[in-house]
Amino acid sequence: MVAFASDVVSVPHAVSNDSARVALQWIRKLPDEAWQPVNLRSKDRSRIKFSAQRFYGEAESWDTRVPPELLALGEEAVEAARAKAPDAPWDVFNIDTLVLNRYPKGKGVGKHHDPPKWVPLVVGVTLYDDPHNSPVNAMEFAHQRDSLVVPTPHRSAYAFHGSAYWGATHARRPCSAKQKGNVYSLTFRAFA
Ligand SMILES: O=C(O)CCC(=O)C(=O)O
After folding, report:
1. N or C, fewer C-beta in 10 Å, the chain?
2. How far is Cα 90 from Cα 190, in angstroms, rounded to an integer?
3. Greater model confidence, 4 or 51
């Protein structure tokens, strides 16, 4: 048994088809300039952050609040994840930050820890432009020799907290070359 596995949950169908459709429509309307590199070393314009707090990369154009259309999606996923992980710190998890990543085929995010000063709980929703014609992507959590791969189909959510937040790294596995359109990840967080 992987040591931190009890602090990671996966929820298939965490958000409804309607919620996914509304969120995807909203995301696709964003102007291309809104997408910015993850950090100064990156060339890919793949990230938008909605928060009053600093969280890795910053851009002038980014909003300081989570838009209501996407907050609704986060709250739906929180309810679904909470039912599966009642011991996570939900009582202090007042969503104030959304990190939105878009992954074209072949792209992912390398392993990293999230910064301190945040509630040690992340809820991530994954949406696909073309879920019927794209292989399922995955998140990977790792600590020393232990690793846990969590498939992330369309409309699924994952949540990680506690030892999986502090001890393990997380990464988005590179998306398949066969993927059609983008995969989007919406990670909801709360500043401590
Ligand atoms: O793709 C994901 O769901 C995770 C993204 C992530 O870890 C990050 O943006 O720091």
Report:
1. N
2. 10
3. 4
Q: Contact 73/14 with Cβ under 8 angstroms?
A: no
Lowest mean pLDDT among 56-60, 105-109, 114-118, 144-148: 56-60
- Ligand 1 centroid to Cα of residue 18, in Å, is 23
Q: Across residues 23-28, what is the average pLDDT?
A: 96
Element (H, E) at 33: none
Residues 6+ apart with CB under 8 A from 87: none
Answer yes or no: is pLDDT of 4 > 70.
yes
* Ordered DSSP codes for 115-146: PSSB-SEEEEEEEESSGGGS--EEEEEEETTE
pLDDT (tens digit per residue) in 136-170: 999 999 999 999 999 999 999 999 999 999 999 99
Nearest residue (CA) to ligand 1, atom 10: 114
For residues 4 and 167, the answer to whether their CB atoms sit within 8 Å is yes
- Quickly name the fold that domain 5-189 has: Jelly Rolls (2.60.120)
For residue 63, what is the enclosing H or E element?
A: none
Residue 132 Cα to ligand 1 midpoint, Å, equals: 23
List, in sequence order, the alpha helices (H) in the chain.
17-28, 68-84, 162-166
Who contacts 10 (Cβ-Cβ below 8 Å, separation ≥6)? 150, 151, 152, 156, 157, 158
